[in-house]
From TrEMBL:
<dbReference type="InterPro" id="IPR028973">
    <property type="entry name" value="PhnB-like"/>
</dbReference>
<dbReference type="Pfam" id="PF06983">
    <property type="entry name" value="3-dmu-9_3-mt"/>
</dbReference>
<dbReference type="InterPro" id="IPR009725">
    <property type="entry name" value="3_dmu_93_MTrfase"/>
</dbReference>
<feature type="domain" description="PhnB-like">
    <location>
        <begin position="1"/>
        <end position="120"/>
    </location>
</feature>
<protein>
    <submittedName>
        <fullName>Uncharacterized protein conserved in bacteria</fullName>
    </submittedName>
</protein>
<dbReference type="InterPro" id="IPR029068">
    <property type="entry name" value="Glyas_Bleomycin-R_OHBP_Dase"/>
</dbReference>
């Protein structure tokens, strides 16, 4: 749930960044509904072949995304992993830089520019 109408920008970034990703369905707020016209009421999309849903919150609230919940994505290719990590890190906050942490040859954790938390891992 994004605030300030940022869901579309986040979706644009994610769909352009992750392989096997596409928009499945999007419903936007229209005149007379609680959200600003054109913002996302609900969007269903896939990233790396997995289905997700997001929305723009029409209500301002004091909470946002937190790294206590993150999306874990595994890559077979170190090049794909590094590319995605670099894109998600831009304007975001690296919590754990890409490195060998013992449980994985290459792992990184980042909060992207929208505050969404991602754990990126190289599959064994």
């Amino acid at each position: 749930m994004f605030q300030g109408g940022k869901a579309q920008a986040a979706l644009d970034l994610y769909l352009a960044t992750f392989p096997d990703s596409r928009m499945l369905r999007v419903e936007r707020y229209s005149e007379g509904e609680p959200g600003p016209v054109g913002t996302i009421k609900v969007a269903v999309f896939t990233l790396c072949g997995r289905e997700y849903m997001c929305s723009d919150s029409p209500i301002e609230h004091k909470f946002s995304f937190t790294p206590s919940f993150s999306t874990f994505v595994e890559f077979d290719s170190p090049e794909d992993l590094e590319r995605v990590f670099a894109i998600l890190s831009e304007g975001g906050e690296v919590l754990m830089p890409l490195d060998n942490y013992g449980f994985s040859q290459k792992f990184g954790w980042v909060n992207d520019r929208f505050g969404v938390s991602w754990q990126i891992n190289l599959a064994s």
